[in-house]
Known about the structure:
Blueprint: H1 3-20, H2 22-49, H3 53-61, E1 66-70, E2 76-78, E3 85-87, E4 112-124, E5 129-137, E6 149-153, E7 161-165, H4 166-172, E8 179-181, E9 188-196, E10 205-208, H5 214-223, E11 236-240, H6 249-256, E12 260-264, H7 265-269, H8 278-281, H9 291-323, H10 325-333, H11 338-370, H12 372-379, H13 390-417, H14 420-425, H15 436-458, H16 461-487, H17 495-506, H18 508-542, E13 551-555, H19 559-562, H20 565-575, E14 578-589, E15 605-610, H21 626-632, H22 635-642, H23 645-648, E16 664-667, H24 670-676, H25 681-688, E17 693-694, E18 704-711, H26 718-723, E19 729-736, E20 738-739, E21 752-754, H27 756-761, E22 765-775, H28 781-793, E23 799-803, H29 812-839, H30 841-849, H31 855-901, H32 915-936
Parallel strand pairs: 5-10, 7-9, 16-21, 17-20
Antiparallel strand pairs: 1-11, 1-12, 2-3, 4-5, 4-11, 6-9, 7-10, 8-9, 13-22, 13-23, 14-16, 14-22, 15-18, 17-21, 18-19
Helix pairs in contact: 1-11, 2-9, 2-11, 2-13, 9-13, 9-18, 9-29, 11-13, 15-16, 15-31, 16-17, 16-18, 16-31, 17-18, 17-31, 18-29, 18-31, 20-28, 21-31, 29-31, 29-32, 31-32
Amino acid sequence: MSLFTGWRAALRIARRDAMRSKGRSALVVAMIAVPVLGVTALDVTYRSVTPTTAEELTASMGSADALFSDEQIGPIQQLPDAESYDRVDENAPVDEDGPSIDITTTFPKGSRAISIQSVPAGITTGYGIATTEIYEFRTSDELARGKIDLVRGAFPHGKDEVVATEPFLKSTGLHVGSTTAVRNFGKKYTITGVVEQPDQLSAEALYADPGAVIAPWQARADHDKKVLPPNVGSKTWLVKGPEGVGVTWPDVMAANESGVLVKSRQVVLDPPPDFDVPLARKGVEAYPDTSGEVSAALVTVVAMAVLEIVLLAGPAFAVGARRSRRQLGLLGTCGGDRRHVRAVVLGGGLVLGGVGAAAGVAVGLAATAVFRPMIEEWSGNRFVSLALNPMELLVIAAIGLITGLLAAFAPAIVASRQSVLESLTGRRGVRRSSRVLPVLGACVLAIGCAVAVYGGTAGDSTLVAAGSVTAELGLLACIPVIVGFLGRLGSRLPLSPRLALRDAARNRGRTAPAVAAVMAAVAGSVAIATYMSSSMAEAEYNYVPSLNEGTVVISAFDDKTAARLPQARAAVERNMAVTGGHADFRHVWAGSDCNVYGDAENACGSVELVKPAGKAASCPLTGKGAKELAARLTADEHKKLMRSPACLVGIMTSGVFNAGEHGIVVADEAMLSTYVKLDDPAAAKALAAGTPVLLNPVFAKNGEVTIKAVHHYSDKDKQGRKLHPGKARTTTDRLKVYVAPEKYAATPGISMILPQRTAERLGLHTRASGSVYAVTHAPTDTEQQRTYGAIEQAGGGIWTQSESGPGRTDNSMLLILTLFAGIVTLGAAAITTGLAKADAEADLNTLSAVGAPPGVRRKLSGFQCVVVALTGVVLGTLAGLVPAVALRLVDLRQALQTMRMEPTESAYTPIVLPWTTLGLLVVGVPLLAGLLATALTRSRLALARRAG
Length: 948
């Protein structure tokens, strides 16, 4: 029999066997198809989301040939991609106040152009007032296509119409047909349509035709001095070159001579040689391409998918080979040898792998097309088209096919080694487990952990990766022994869990790969989740708040606007989630009334706290010998020192209270409960009696502080000198204070609360400056717009600020990782339970024969699921902590190096476990797997055909 004939017969047998065992075949096909589906969808999504150079040019300049912008620094030289440029003569003076050039004179002859210019403005919304960016850009022009596209409605055609982006409408409560007014000068506009920037779907903006906003605003400002002129951005131009010519490299260099930067589509796609580029001849290079990093990541994802398939589908082929052992034995009686048996089993892998690969690629393409709108919204940019790379899709399908063969390879070897007699009689034989493999695995595990930790302490990420992979491989080799050990733990357990543990231990060839698959998936998820949680904790620690969390401050900066504070308070109380009352505060200064802001040039006086002499009052990380000290500190010691009152001076200063560098605010006891959160009757009593409350004890000595007032009079302010004649002078006063506990030294913006009557007794000036509210949550966009609108109706000039803590990192990645690991865990547990059910049918029949209740069958399936899921999750968690801890050691080394160069830089690099993720994986997923297996398993056996 020829080789081709033998394989044709093997494939025919394998196909018939697959059709006969449809359930098991569908399971194997699904295991192969699902990872192929995921990799296919990932490949198509990545190719579609990642724009080509041509697509990037369209997003930046629409259908124009070039983008022109005046850099206003004189003649320049640029690279063809316009990402780098430099002045021709770096020593030449730059006349910033001189007249700007007419940029239209630099366009190639026969060109057509439209301009883009933006201005920030306060606009009325459905809730109140919001600030947004308004672009003067003729969006209806064909040159804008690809940069701005119409979603619905119509483009603006006139000076009283605008279009808006969808995110803007959602945040403001407006819609097509709504009217909005620019509060800065009062003109109203009708929203005629919705547009989008294909490369920035989350952008919030308004678009109007040129001359619709900026020119009338400027005219109103020139006519009415109460209206501030618009703060417009620089103007850029989209240029369409002569038909069939475009904008060439000589055109670009000619524009450069006038200081104009040009990004030409033709030049970027077909750049000139370096010897024709003056800046390139100077050695300036373009930014490097980082696509190799993405390719490495894709290779890693594909390798993990292959490993998952082999680990999960391998036991299915093994069970299939055992269930077909009589058929394979008959093959031997008919003259077939071992290679024919191997061919039949491998043929099953080829058949099922081919079907799974084809199905995975097809469903992956279909899923990407169906979920395209969702993917576009998540990525923030539109696909120009579904980017299909036939070669990559073919490779993915081939990988699925080859993986099916790899999964069937070990079962084929085992099946070919069985004797014909064993195959016909159904005896499995008894083989002892290898004693060398677990010992070798334990050694590899220890070596891998040591290499990963060493790589972390040495700052070598490559060693960390190598050590982590080695440790995981070592743990994989130990899994059969661990599973065997579990069988010994069930001697005192009830029947169902005892049988589940013993079945897992007796059939390690089926259980160990499934546990390994779960471990591999969970390890990666736990590693990334732990690293992300630790990084978020580090970011939260290093964050310097401007206010105490859960507070809102309204501020006025002069007497005129301070008169509107009652209306502003009413607006806040009506529109925000305030709790309790408010605390009023006043600004304090020394000297004349010429400038109460403390501006360095025109300041009329300042008030500050004087540190007492001695080392206790100075931060050792800012003075002489700071670097030497930092070199001796550990991260925890540095953290403690940076949180000491002496080192907090100046760091927690906030401009919200206009309290200067040392944070002196005039207020009463309401400030303690509303903002400082100092619940101490003694402190409130001290303020009521005229005694200041000191929050930072570093300024205190023997319960007293020294206040230094510098009374300076500006020569530019005649009124100030008339009110307070005399030379500048400095006064100091010592005051008895109430010293708060050290933890309140970290209160943002305030170091000392000074009673009003004490300030007056010291000859200081005060005026109403604002109020503080405690809120249950950070103000939403709607609440802010309503509040701002009410304040503007009362005359405006009042600022509202809130503190919601550090930027909340999007936890969607942690959720995705948890879902991925959970799905793999459930799938592996379900596969193992299904295989166990098919493999142990005789044992289940025996249980029924000896009188076991029907519920035992359901409970056994549930506990079999729990055993696989729980074992894999626990081992995966331990394996995932190795790279996470090692990578944090790398971060720690880098942070310590930075701290020793800049002693005030934090070296705090905590290791924070993602307890929510771990809880879901270790408790939730195994429990869910067990419950699903219990619910989906039939209690009673199906009637079997009589043998013989």
